[in-house]
Design a protein that fits this description.
This protein is mainly alpha-helical. The chain has 7 helices and no strands. The model is unreliable at 63-82 (pLDDT under 50).
């Protein structure tokens, strides 16, 4: 359950309430469809597909903006600087187009292969690979000038 929630949270761009709603919807759908699960993939992959689809459904229903985060911090507070860098990274990922964000999170954060991502998103593996490359480039540009 924590892995599904984390995936939903990241795919939702950090929206906690939206992630909670997604996980709730996923469990309802998964319980209803469990008899159709054929064990041809890992159960976590199957459930991950429900998360991806639920996030897509919700993002179609209403577009959300992330609340602003203050960038003022003392230059000598290393922990605060690291937190600000993490927030900047999370914000950069959250602002990616949905397709880029989904592929980046599924691959780089969750560890799915391009073949698994392709199956989850209904695309070919090459599309997953190109979207990942573009997503990484967009994140680098969004973080431009920051040393990590």
């Amino acid at each position: 359950m924590p892995r599904l929630y984390g995936l939903a949270l990241r795919l939702n761009g950090g929206d906690v309430a939206g992630a909670e709603d997604v996980v709730h919807d996923v469990w309802i759908r998964a319980v209803e469809r469990l008899p159709t699960f054929r064990w041809e993939s890992a159960l976590s992959t199957w459930l991950g597909g429900f998360v991806v689809n639920a996030v897509r459904d919700r993002s179609r229903q209403d577009a959300r903006e992330l609340p602003g985060v203050e960038d003022d911090h003392p230059a000598n507070d290393i922990a605060l600087l690291q937190t600000a860098d993490r927030v900047d990274l999370e914000r950069a990922i959250a602002q990616l187009p949905a397709g880029f964000r989904h592929v980046l999170i599924l691959h780089d954060v969750e560890g799915y292969t391009h073949e698994e991502i392709a199956a989850l998103l209904g695309v070919v593996p090459g599309t997953s690979k190109s979207q990942l490359a573009r997503a990484r480039g967009a994140v680098r540009r969004a973080l431009g000038g920051k040393e990590h």
